[in-house]
Design brief:
about 0% strand; mainly alpha; rod-shaped
């Protein structure tokens, strides 16, 4: 399933960046609301996992496309 360029496109360019943005908003809201420790954890850990997951999906998609069409 994660070897299809279409799936990696949706994950890398749409789903994971949106989840990173939403978790960053939740983390900042928690920090401003008074839950500083949990907000920092959400902001630093969860948002970064989604962001790096997006970069991984984009890089994997690029490698798959290059191996399918080496002359292009």
């Amino acid at each position: 399933m994660l070897k299809k360029p279409e799936t990696l496109f949706v994950l890398g360019y749409m789903l994971l960046p949106l989840l990173a943005l939403l978790s960053a908003i939740v983390g900042l809201t928690m920090i401003l609301g008074g839950n500083k420790i949990v907000g920092i954890i959400v902001l630093v850990v969860v948002a970064q996992v989604f962001a790096f997951g997006a970069f991984y999906a984009i890089r994997t998609r690029k490698q798959l496309l290059l191996t399918e069409h080496p002359g292009s």
